[in-house]
Automatic annotation (TrEMBL):
Localization of this protein: Membrane
TM segment ranges: 42-64, 76-98, 139-162, 168-195, 216-235, 247-273, 317-333, 373-394, 459-482, 577-598
Superkingdom per UniProt: Eukaryota
Start and end residues of each Pecanex C-terminal domain: 1030-1199
Membrane association type: Multi-pass membrane protein
Family statement drawn from the similarity comment of this UniProt entry: Belongs to the pecanex family.
Record lineage: Eukaryota, Metazoa, Chordata, Craniata, Vertebrata
GO CC term, one of those recorded: membrane
PANTHER family registered for this protein in UniProt: PECANEX, PECANEX-LIKE PROTEIN 4
Protein name: Pecanex-like protein
Keywords attached to this entry: Membrane, Transmembrane, Transmembrane helix
Compositional bias ranges of the Polar residues kind: 806-820
């Protein structure tokens, strides 16, 4: 991304024109009075008539009622019936126009030069005109439903705004007329949106309105107002309801403004938000990680609440509330998963297909074993016994005063527990007191993992004490406090609301406020009459809203201050906007307060200091399921580290290192070039549900600016000197959205990249490569024989083909072969000769093959269908013929890969001079048939173990040519390796047997023939002189040689030769960096280490992907930077590293995501260089946009909801 100046237009010219056409339509409910082209007057007249039609029908009913010709009820029915007929007529016209225009479209030819929005109007009721004004409904059920609702809405709306009713409310005919006129404007807007044409709402939750729910949004809010008025009419004279009706009639006039500003949520968001708020603050639950879980938990909790009404005994209420509260506070949905996850299955990596990654099996809570069942059962039984006994013996004897009764000591105990737990939690993080001061007890200097662990032992002891107090002492103290409460005898509902979830969750903060209120009852009349249950609910709601207000206020100040102090954020309008905010400070505080009261995001328009109240939505902010991402090859690094990160998070959550873990909290982790976004989705007793996202590794300029600031914030917290002064002890980055919390020990890959200049282009090194290749090949051939003897050999059909280099998407590639860890299959490129079909038919596509291709030998193209067929055993192999010259196959494996991960283009002219192959000639005639080969006579009986397949001896090479290269074969290395492998095969072998193996000339000649044949086939019979040739061989793009057909015909031998060359290059790299090998034993152990602990290949291969997921200790890859003209080596090493984690301002994240949703879904401002996506070092704007769920954001990895214990 190219960073642009701060005065880049918020919307480009095209989007500005589009916005100013769409916004008036949204305000008026659907009429399109502003078009981008000239339209006949009847288009505007028709829309105006349809817009005012409900007012006309309502006016008729009102007039007849005022003239005493009809009663109010009859006038209401008349207006409703007239509107129903008009709505049915509009829908019939829309249906007729759709059928007519469909026929015309099929017959007429479209004009591609005409603007897509321009419509040719012929007359006022032509099909084009009708379709433009009233597009109609997609579903027949909606046609009926919306038509009926239009009539009902008009009838009740007429009743709602009768002049007589308004005059009785306000006592003034003037005020009544103003309210009457403006109220009908609101009703006309809702009717037009429901029945004629639905406007795009600024409050958009879903990207697409599949089921046409949006037309119901505005009528729903009108029905809510009407319902309150009906309650006033039929409930009798209640002063509170009378006042509420007067206020709502005035607020009714401002509904169009609220709709236009997007403050009122759509139906789906309103339903989810309402259930979530009720579940959390009325039923004591937690926000859920999915809509289905939210619906189920809400239904179960509400059912339990209702059930309390039918329990006659207060003791029964207490026991039922405690038992259901404990069960519902557990993550019961994971019981089946925990039971099916045996300890032996932790070595299996099937979890990587999604779901929760299994951390180390010894950790408490990851399995539902004996320890876990014993703990949960003990807590359950003790809680039931404590609640029943305390309520039975002390509940009825409680005096009127709370402090003087048995609840008094328990309340003080809870306050003390709260203070102690808060203190122990604060000292676990890098900062204390809200991130203002550095924690002097936190380890200083994070040079190594071991040093960090040693310095953190004291904090671990404090964390253990806090964990016992938090999960074992505090819940029982809370149960004791509630069990003795007298209000349980008076109000079953209250006891239940306090018992569910709250009985086994920490309510110490609420109790502190409750006790403070009890101390000053004279200031709050009627507070005691509410009962302890309602008091706790109100205090909990108040604390939540105050916390939100403070977070939103900090976010507001950050946006305001940085819009002027940051030069790159200072727009020309910055001074004006700051002056307006200063002059309208009370209004700004009102907006912040309103958003906190509604638990709605504070929306900074275009991320400027223009603040609006976003519509209320669930804590997750997004409607779709958790776990959607935009995968790329780099996603595997996040997928690999998610296992270890989940285990580290579990430990940090249990210790309190990351602070309060309220659902909706966001954290950011940083390690090298990796950014991890962590969001808390759900929280219960002893468990937590999180979502882990990985941000892109290919950093843009905006990403780099914010990543640099993140590093600075973490360095100030974790890399500080031993002794701090007062000024150094302050958090100088307190205004930043990120507050460092802790460093977590995570098993992750460290990525090191080196430029190979001086190594790969050194002639001295290249001359050694031939000898290293033969030694590695001899070692692999002997090891192949040992594997075959032990039965660890892979079959010819398993593993990937050698037709083309494979690249795999990070999410969907899985390890499907069943070979042991030692049998690693290498993927590579082979000459396309192998895949061309022999055919004499002139009509065959194979005849289009051209061996003298100007661009050199091209690897065979492998489509998705081919790869799928290969991955599914039992399916017939697809035949692959040569493609037509100049054709491009779009269904390649590279379609989902980043460009940086693809193999560099090959230089021109590499294929010139390659011999042509006659299509009618079978190349097998040049080889010796296996039956004509001489019989091998081994002098040692054990030599048969190291015999090679017969087909490997049939290379079409002259014996004299092999004889010339005979001196290159490393005989001493062969004998040494043979002695090492011989003891491995036979166990304790006698010296005589080992000596006989080494002196077997037939065995030596066999391996020499195969090794030298491979040497010639890969074109390495002479010393390597070109780095480009070495790179091509490493990539498996072997130029044509006379033995290549023979080598590629045996997949196993070809893979061994390619792996040998890659091993030899790695040996060359290590010796150039660390020094030469001093002995054969060192070389042998090095090759064993390569085979056991290394994956040496290419980044684009599936084997690289699988090795990362299988956590191979080391990976090596050779690359070529075409821009710089250099060759690079990349080494990944798996080790424990410290990942620095900080807490983000959750309200700032929600506000920026709300603006992103409005900007992309309503204003359609998808410009990649728009202002709201530019780097902002304080708000971390670019990173926040990346972390949003697709399609608005683009994280390259997003885990499914991860459920793990926190005990």
């Amino acid at each position: 991304m190219v960073r642009m100046g701060p005065d880049v237009p918020l919307l480009n010219e095209y989007k500005q024109e589009f916005f100013w056409k769409r916004f008036p339509q949204t305000v008026l409910g659907g009429p399109r009075f502003k078009l981008g082209y000239c339209a006949p007057p009847f288009v505007y007249v028709n829309q105006a008539v349809l817009f005012l039609t409900p007012w006309l029908f309502g006016g008729i009913g009102t007039l007849l009622c005022q003239l005493k010709l009809l009663q109010e009820l009859h006038a209401t029915v008349l207006a409703g019936m007239l509107m129903f007929g008009a709505a049915a007529g509009v829908q019939a016209l829309a249906f007729y126009a759709a059928r007519r225009s469909g026929t015309v479209e099929r017959l007429g030819a479209p004009n591609i030069l005409v603007d897509e929005e321009e419509v040719e109007f012929t007359h006022c009721v032509s099909p084009e005109t009708v379709r433009f004004i009233a597009p109609g409904k997609r579903f027949g059920l909606n046609v009926v439903l919306h038509t009926v609702l239009a009539g009902v809405l008009c009838g009740f709306g007429t009743w709602y705004v009768f002049l007589g009713r308004l005059t009785a409310l306000y006592g003034s005919i003037g005020i009544s007329m103003v309210v009457f006129v403006l109220s009908w404007v609101t009703l006309c807007i809702a009717e037009y949106s429901l029945i004629v044409n639905t406007a795009t709402e600024t409050a958009t939750f879903h990207a697409q309105d599949t089921y046409e729910i949006t037309p119901l949004t505005r009528p729903l809010y009108i029905f809510i107002f009407i319902a309150v008025d009906l309650a006033v009419r039929f409930s009798g004279p209640v002063p509170e309801l009378q006042l509420a009706s007067q206020v709502l009639h005035v607020l009714f006039l401002f509904l169009p403004l609220l709709w236009a500003l997007g403050i009122l949520p759509p139906l789906d968001a309103l339903l989810l938000w309402g259930m979530e708020q009720t579940l959390v603050f009325c039923l004591g639950g937690s926000p859920m990680s999915s809509n289905l879980r939210l619906l189920l938990m809400f239904a179960i909790s509400a059912s339990v609440a209702v059930s309390n009404y039918f329990i006659p005994s207060t003791l029964g209420v207490v026991l039922f509330s405690v038992s259901t509260g404990f069960l519902l506070s557990l993550d019961l949905s994971q019981v089946g998963t925990l039971c099916r996850r045996p300890r032996a299955a932790f070595g299996d990596h099937g979890f990587r297909r999604g779901g929760s990654p299994p951390p180390p099996p010894s950790s408490f809570g990851w399995n539902l074993g004996f320890r876990e069942l014993l703990l949960y059962l003990s807590v359950f039984l003790v809680a039931m016994a404590e609640a029943g006994m305390l309520h039975h013996f002390l509940g009825s004897a409680q005096p009127q005063g709370l402090v003087t009764g048995p609840q008094g000591p328990v309340s003080y105990l809870l306050l003390g527990l709260f203070c102690l737990c808060w203190t122990l939690r604060e000292i676990q993080g890098a900062y204390v007191f809200g991130g203002v001061f550095l924690n002097p007890l936190y380890p200083k200097g994070l040079n190594s993992v071991q040093t960090f662990k040693q310095r953190s032992r004291g904090l671990y002891f404090a964390a253990a004490i806090r964990r016992v107090l938090l999960y074992l002492v505090s819940p029982f103290a809370m149960i004791a406090f509630l069990s003795m409460d007298k209000s349980l005898q008076l109000l079953h509902r209250v006891s239940h609301q306090c018992g569910i979830h709250t009985s086994l969750q920490i309510g110490v903060a609420e109790l502190r406020g409750c006790s403070a209120a009890d101390a000053g009852n004279s200031m709050l009349p009627g507070w005691d009459n509410l009962g302890t249950g309602v008091q706790l609910l109100l205090v909990g709601l108040l604390l939540d809203r105050v916390t939100q207000f403070l977070s939103k206020l900090k976010f507001t100040l950050t946006v305001l201050v940085t819009s002027w102090t940051e030069k790159k954020q200072r727009r020309q309008s910055a001074g004006t906007l700051l002056a307006l905010n200063a002059s309208l400070c009370p209004l700004l505080l009102l907006v912040v307060t309103l958003s906190a009261l509604l638990s709605a995001p504070l929306l900074p328009l275009f991320t400027l200091p223009i603040f609006l109240v976003g519509f209320p939505r669930p804590q997750r902010s997004w409607p779709g399921p958790v776990g959607t991402a935009c995968p790329c090859p780099d996603s595997i690094f996040y997928q690999q580290m998610s296992t270890s990160l989940a285990s580290a998070l579990r430990t940090a959550f249990a210790r309190g290192s990351l602070g309060s873990l309220a659902p909706g909290s966001h954290f950011l982790g940083r390690f090298q070039d990796r950014m991890v976004w962590i969001m808390i989705l759900e929280r219960g007793y002893g468990y937590c549900t999180v979502n882990i996202k990985g941000l892109e590794l290919q950093e843009t300029s905006c990403h780099t600016v914010e990543a640099r600031r993140v590093d600075e914030v973490f360095e100030a917290a974790f890399e500080r000197p031993e002794r701090l002064g007062f000024t150094q002890g302050l958090n100088l980055h307190w205004g930043n959205a990120l507050t460092p919390c802790a460093a977590l020990t995570v098993r992750v890959y460290s990525d090191a990249r080196n430029v190979l200049s001086g190594i790969i282009d050194s002639h001295d090194n290249l001359r050694k490569l031939q000898d290293e290749f033969l030694k590695a090949l001899v070692w692999l051939l002997l090891r192949y024989c040992v594997q075959k003897h032990k039965g660890f050999l892979w079959s010819g059909e398993e593993g990937p083909g050698a037709g083309g280099r494979k690249s795999q998407s990070s999410t969907f590639a899985q390890t499907t072969s069943n070979q042991p860890p030692e049998a690693v299959v290498v993927e590579s490129n082979v000459s396309s000769l192998r895949f061309r079909q022999d055919s004499s038919s002139l009509t065959s596509f194979g005849d289009w093959s051209d061996e003298d291709d100007l661009f050199g030998p091209q690897p065979a193209r492998r489509t998705v269908a081919l790869v799928t067929a290969e991955a599914q055993p039992g399916l017939a192999a697809l035949q692959t013929g040569a493609s037509l010259p100049g054709s491009v196959e779009m269904d390649s494996l590279f379609e989902n890969m980043a460009l940086s991960a693809l193999q560099p283009l090959q230089p021109l002219g590499l294929g010139i001079g390659m011999p042509a192959v006659d299509k009618g000639l079978n190349p097998e005639v040049f080889r010796e048939s296996p039956g004509s080969l001489p019989q091998l006579n081994f002098s040692c009986p054990q030599s048969e173990v190291f015999n090679l397949p017969t087909g490997w001896r049939t290379a079409p090479l002259l014996p004299s040519r092999l004889l010339q290269l005979r001196t290159l074969f490393p005989e001493d290395w062969f004998r040494f390796s043979l002695g090492q492998f011989g003891s491995a095969v036979q166990g304790e072998t006698s010296e005589h047997m080992t000596k006989a193996l080494k002196e077997d000339e037939a065995l030596k000649e066999l391996h020499a023939q195969v090794a030298l044949s491979c040497l010639i086939s890969v074109g390495a019979e002479s010393a390597f002189t070109s780095p480009s040739y070495v790179y091509r061989l490493y990539c498996g793009d072997i130029p044509w040689t006379e033995g290549l057909d023979w080598l590629s015909s045996s997949k196993e031998l070809y893979q061994l030769a390619l792996r040998a060359f890659r091993f030899s290059f790695k040996l060359l790299f290590d010796q150039a960096s660390l020094g030469p090998m001093e002995s054969p034993e060192e070389l042998f152990s090095t090759l064993e280490e390569y085979e056991r602990d290394w994956y040496i290949g290419l980044v684009t291969e599936k084997g690289w992907h699988d090795s990362v997921l299988q956590e191979k200790p080391f990976l090596f890859s050779l690359g070529h930077d075409l821009a710089m003209g250099t060759y690079t080596g990349r080494v990944l090493s798996l080790q424990e590293q410290l990942v620095q984690v900080g807490r983000l301002n959750g309200e700032g994240v929600r506000g920026q995501w709300a603006n992103l949703s409005w900007e992309l879904l309503y204003a359609t401002n998808d410009d990649e260089e728009r202002y709201s996506i530019q780097a902002h070092p304080f708000m971390l704007r670019n990173l926040t946009v990346q972390a949003a769920d697709p399609p608005l954001g683009y994280p390259i990895y997003s885990s499914a909801p991860l459920h793990f214990p926190c005990l």
